[in-house]
Amino acid sequence: MVSINDSISHLSEWTPCDGSLKCACQNHVIADFQPTSMPPLRENPVIHHLTRTNNAPSPAEEDILKAMILELQSRLDAAASFSAQVKKLRAEVMTQVQRIDTLLRTLDTEQATLAKGIEERKTLLGPVRRLPSEILSRIFSLTNDFPIRTKIKDDIEKDSNNWRELLSAENTLWTLELVCRSWRRELLQSPSLWARINVSIKATDSDADLEIATLRLATQLSRVGLSDLSVGLYCYSTEAYHPHQLSSLLLPFAPRIRDLVLHMPPSMLCTLSPFYDRFRGLKNLDFIWVHVGQPWHGRCVLFMTCPELQSVSFSDVDHALACFALPWATIRNFTSEHVYLPKHSDYTGPEPLSVLQVLKAGRHLRVCNIRMEFCNVVEPPELQGLLVTCPQLLEMTIRIWPFVNTRPVPQLLNHLSAPALSKLTIETGLRTGGRDEETTFASIVHFIERSGSHLSSLHFSKGRLSSDDILRFLHLTPTLEDLCLADCEGLKNEVLDALIFKHDSREILVPRLEKLHLSGSLVFDEKVFTNMVKSRWQTTPLRSLNLGWYTEGVRESSAREYVITELMPYCASGLNLVTSVG
Question: Is the dihedral of CA 472, 475, 479, 482 positive or negative?
Fold first, then answer.
């Protein structure tokens, strides 16, 4: 057997002859062949007349012709000899070419083998073999999705009320433990990795599928040790049922469940009745109402006795207060999401009255995220004279899916007060793609004035603004640090004039303002804007500016260039400037 070193040595000793400059052989380069130049006989001055007659040549002419024949025969013999040599050379070269082709194929195979050998040896030196156990454990944890990700179906039938589907329900830990002994050992020594449990229930599951799922769940629970648990139960069919084997396995661990994710029709909640009063350690609840529109007149009391419940997230639950009995005194974070389905206009999600009822019950809420779409044009009688106060609410986000001729934000904010509110985000818009009316921003101003809160951040998008409302808002919020008016219209010079710092003035409007984002239909004078920024630089400087002109034209491009030119010197002193057109 030839060793690798011998092969390399053999290859390194051979080099191809590179031409006559270094090769001593005088025949190394094939000689050129010059074809015979033979003019026609009719052009020969001596015998040209014989080509036009049948006369016999004279003795002198015969000697000339015989001499010509001898010379041509000599050249013919030389050409035949040279041709034979070239043919022999060609045969030898072809044999060499075949050998070269065979050699090249062998060398290609050799290179692939050597490259594979290098990769195999590099793998043995790979850093993954020397990763500390805590890093390896962290990598393993990132491969296990919890909760299972879902998506809205691409094609939803008009009469369908099941809009979501699971992307993947596989637990990668079962695959990782089969890679090698060291990985399996690390997995078994990390109980927290097994503490995130996903259980997917399908109507098409056979008895064999349920048996496998039950065995895996039992194995996983045996590996969690004393870790706190995160459990997700997913059922997207009303025909499926919750096997009692799964409940029996989970029941002893219920007090250790800290995060619970439920994707199921509300009618299936009754199958979880054995867990009543067992979720004593539950902190986070995430419920997605599957099969929206399915009749259900019950009220879930499973979570009424959860003394540590702090965060609740509902999706497509129109009447959270009526459908769930919750320990609102302990809940600090509340989220109400709603799927936007333009083709299903009969389902429009929770209305302002339902949200206000939740806020009234959750007086201790700190963070609230609401998604709405629709409200009655005429306020329902239940809203007459209603004012809900959230004394501890610090952050509130309201996002509106675009609908036609409805204004849910004013209807909600006109009946709400939040004295401790610090951050407010409102995203509105119309289905036609236009901006919401001025009444929406006006309701925000009234809400802030009514609450008397020390607002530090306002993000508002896709709305029309009036100068009076903006000025009133700025006077109401001396603690404002971050103002974002995205995709809006109506911001005029008089507002920027009011923000200019005047040395003879006793009052500085919004003295803490550091971040300013303005985009949409910007019609104010860019000179007024840059003067405002410069005037505040020494006393109450703006540190972050973002300007976006949504219309691309000569005026907008010119305004952008002017702002960049005027404010670029301030960027060297700490100003973060971002501008865009179109």
Answer: positive
Structure tokens belonging to residue 43: 């052009």
- For residue 451, is pLDDT > 50? yes
List, for residues 196-239, the tens digit of each pLDDT value. Answer: 999 887 766 677 878 888 898 999 999 999 999 999 998 876 65
Contact assessment for residue 177 and residue 183, using Cβ atoms and an 8 Å cutoff: yes
Give the side-chain half-sphere CA count within 13 A for 78. Answer: 10
What is the distance between the alpha carbons of residues 407 and 410, in angstroms, rounded to a whole number? 6
DSSP H helical ranges for 295-385: 320-323, 352-361
What token pair was written down for 337? 């999401």
Tell me which of 146-160, 501-515, 530-544 is least confident. 146-160
Of residues 252, 285, 249, the one with CA closest to residue 269: 285
Partnered with residue 515 across adjacent β-strands are 482, 544
Contact criterion met (CB below 8 Å) for 262 and 287? yes
Measured CA to CA, the distance from residue 127 to residue 118 in angstroms comes to 16
pLDDT in tens, 499-530: 998 877 677 899 999 999 999 888 889 999 99
Cβ atoms 266, 296 nearer than 8 A: yes
Is pTM, for the whole model, over 0.90? no
Residue that is written with structure tokens 């809006």 in the block: 488
For residue 36, the 8-state DSSP code is P
Chain centroid to Cα 124, Å, comes to 34
Q: Among residues 533, 544, 402, 513, which one has the least CA distance to residue 461?
A: 402
Cis peptide bond prior to 569, omega within 30° of 0: no
pLDDT digit string, tens, across residues 378-396: 778 888 889 999 999 999 9
Residue 464 per-residue DSSP state:
B
Question: At 220, which helix (H) or strand (E)?
Answer: helix 207-222
Give residue 371's Cα distance to chain centre: 22
**What residues does 261 pair with on adjacent strands?**
232, 286
Strand, coil or helix: 352: helix
Report how far residue 518's alpha carbon sits from residue 559's, in angstroms, rounded to the nearest whole number. 14
172: left (phi over 0), alpha (psi -120 to 50) or beta: alpha
Q: Is residue 213 within 8 Å of residue 245, measured between CB atoms?
A: no
Q: What is the pLDDT of residues 260-311, one digit of tens each?
A: 999 888 878 888 888 999 999 999 999 988 875 566 777 889 999 999 999 9
At 422, the amino acid letter reads S
